[in-house]
């Protein structure tokens, strides 16, 4: 496993005007030169509000570079990073480099790891580029927009020996790991069924008129591997706004929609509890409704999966986010942001029997990533696991699109005797962004 060197985290920041190098004595053992130098690719809502603050507040990371195709976002978040480090040291700070092209950030010798926070259609190309450069990477979920691309990313990361993390925080949530712990320790007896419910999406829009591309946006680079389409704000993200929800989250050119977006959180918990987070089901069937217009992703669905051991998974869009596990001796329910409840209070007892698993030491997603780099270990949710989770969602989407029950061979990642379904496992891209 390629381990991070103790290279100077702030080396090379002469690209920024008059960088201030913080003396090691300010931080002691956690001086910037001892931290993991992190580059952030994508500075939108998720990055600005969630990902960047976690890296800034970690004693094990130093954010040294940012990249975005939107210059307004880039400069706004640059100020966020430098204001944080200035407050931390009590002195002026201007040591965060900025880039419009992620390949330039990845090429920096002093960057140990990258956080990929771009739109879904960019996750795999950026991850491949990071792995080829020997950079450890954490990548937002859902990992990919199709199964073939996700498999390509996993193979590339393995070949180059980098640490990877699928950036879902759900494994770190107490209500989720406590539920998994109880199921894995057979507190409800033999598992028989899992029910996953995720929230619905916002109302669709029609076909907005084409708009001039804002001066601060490199729209062609934003499209990248996606094919050319006319610009409209509701296709990309709100202008000069780091709080509004981006339109691309509802457009099938760039994402699978909420079936994968929310599903990458809770279906991961289901397969983690079931012990199939590196495998998958053997059949899938379902129904759904798709939006029309620019926002054309699925907006209602009900899916039913069966695994080789007879366990079933029901996955649907509803009004809440949570998961229910049913076993031969009881049930357990874990709700996002809520409590863990069970058919019998004894199911939730904290005491462990000999041989039970204990997940109480689970780290946050970012600390899990950073500690794995420091120790040359595997993260709790490497890209192989993230790939298997989104694959579950993607084969469900294909079953709904085709309107029939499908048989799935998880070890080969192919549908059985169904060429039409197998033809949907891959999708074309513009250019050579998937070159490995």
Report the mean per-residue pLDDT as an integer. Answer: 93
Percent of residues in beta strands: 15-25%
Number of helices: 13
Strand order of the largest sheet: 13-12-11-7-10-9-8-14-15
Q: Which stretches are poorly predicted, pLDDT < 50 over at least 5 residues?
A: 1-28
And the CATH topology of the largest domain? Dihydrodipicolinate Reductase, domain 2
- String of helices and strands: HEHEHEHEHEHEHEHHHEEEEEEHHEEH
- Level of helix content? 25-40%
CATH class of the largest domain, named Alpha Beta
Overall number of structural domains: 2
Rg, Å, rounded: 22 Å
Class computed from helices, strands and strand pairing:
alpha/beta
């Amino acid at each position: 496993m390629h381990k991070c060197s103790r290279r100077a985290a702030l080396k090379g920041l002469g690209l920024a005007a008059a960088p201030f190098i913080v003396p090691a004595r300010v931080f002691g053992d956690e001086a910037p030169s001892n931290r993991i130098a992190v580059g952030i690719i994508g500075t939108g809502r998720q990055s600005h509000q969630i990902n960047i603050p976690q890296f800034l507040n970690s004693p094990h990371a130093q954010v040294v570079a940012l990249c975005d195709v939107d210059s307004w976002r880039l400069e706004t978040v640059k100020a966020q990073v430098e204001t944080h480090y200035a407050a931390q040291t009590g002195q002026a700070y201007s040591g965060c480099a900025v880039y419009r092209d992620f390949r330039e950030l990845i090429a920096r010798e002093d960057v140990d790891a990258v956080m990929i926070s771009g739109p879904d259609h960019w996750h795999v190309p950026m991850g491949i580029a990071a792995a080829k450069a020997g950079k450890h990477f954490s990548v937002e979920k859902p990992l990919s927009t199709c199964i073939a691309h996700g498999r390509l990313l996993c193979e590339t990361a393995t070949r180059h020996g980098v640490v990877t993390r699928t950036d879902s925080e759900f494994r770190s949530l107490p209500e989720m790991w406590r539920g998994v712990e109880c199921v894995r320790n057979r507190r409800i007896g033999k598992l028989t069924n899992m029910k996953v419910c995720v929230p619905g999406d916002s109302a669709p829009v029609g076909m907005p008129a084409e708009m001039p591309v804002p001066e601060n946006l490199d729209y062609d680079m934003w499209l990248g591997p996606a094919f050319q389409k006319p610009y409209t704000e509701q296709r990309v993200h709100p202008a000069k706004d780091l709080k509004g929800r981006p339109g691309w989250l509802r457009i099938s050119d760039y994402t699978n929609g909420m079936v994968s977006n929310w599903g990458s959180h809770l279906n991961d918990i289901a397969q983690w509890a079931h012990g199939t987070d590196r495998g998958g089901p053997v059949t899938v069937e379902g129904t759904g409704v798709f939006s029309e217009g620019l926002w054309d992703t699925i907006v209602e669905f009900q899916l039913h999966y069966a695994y080789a051991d007879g366990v079933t998974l029901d996955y649907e869009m509803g009004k809440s986010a949570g998961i229910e596990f049913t076993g031969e001796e009881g049930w357990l329910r874990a709700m996002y942001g809520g409590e863990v409840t069970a058919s019998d209070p004894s199911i939730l007892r904290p005491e462990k029997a000999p041989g039970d698993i204990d997940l109480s030491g689970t780290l946050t997603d970012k600390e899990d990533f950073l500690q794995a780099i420091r120790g040359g270990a595997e993260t709790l949710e490497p890209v192989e696991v993230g790939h298997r989770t989104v694959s579950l969602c993607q084969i469900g989407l294909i079953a709904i699109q085709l309107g029939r029950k499908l048989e799935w061979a998880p070890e080969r990642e192919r549908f059985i005797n169904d060429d039409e379904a197998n033809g949907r496992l891959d999708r074309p891209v513009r250019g050579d962004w998937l070159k490995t």
